[in-house]
Write a structure and sequence with these properties.
β3 and β4 form a beta hairpin. The strands form 2 sheets. The protein has a 4-stranded antiparallel β-sheet, with no helix packed on it. A 4-stranded antiparallel β-sheet has the order 4-3-7-8, with no helix packed on it. The chain has a single domain, classed as Immunoglobulins (Immunoglobulin-like, Sandwich), CATH 2.60.40. It has strands spanning 2-6, 9-15, 23-31, 38-42, 50-51, 55-61, 72-80, 89-93. The chain is built from no helices and 8 strands. 18% of the residues are buried. It is mostly beta strands and 97 residues long.
Length: 97
């Protein structure tokens, strides 16, 4: 798990193992005041996400380098074909990551 910045956006990048070969997507939601963010996406259509066989990176617009720059905290998880989710991981996003 990690983060990196590109322009005004900060990406969270999570890596996972799939021993059952049945993961189909990922989700995330804001925590600690950032609840407006709540999304799930299948790997087959990850919206703006960038997927690989064992990782996914997803951008959030934190307006880095502008007067509206801010940080965020999220929880992210992976889900499988049966709808079961991995334990959520907490990720703090900040400009300059």
């Amino acid at each position: 798990m990690g983060t990196y910045q590109q322009g005004k956006e900060v990406y969270f990048d999570i890596h996972y193992a799939d021993p059952g070969n049945d993961t189909v997507g990922f989700g995330f939601m804001g925590v600690n005041g950032a609840r407006r963010v709540a999304e799930t996406h299948p790997f087959s259509a990850p919206n703006r996400g960038i997927g690989d066989s064992d990782s996914v990176a997803y951008p959030l617009d934190l307006k880095c380098g502008t007067p509206g720059q801010h940080g965020a905290e999220i929880e992210a998880w992976i889900y499988d074909t049966a709808g079961a989710s991995s334990p959520a991981v907490a990720i703090r996003l900040a400009c300059g990551a």
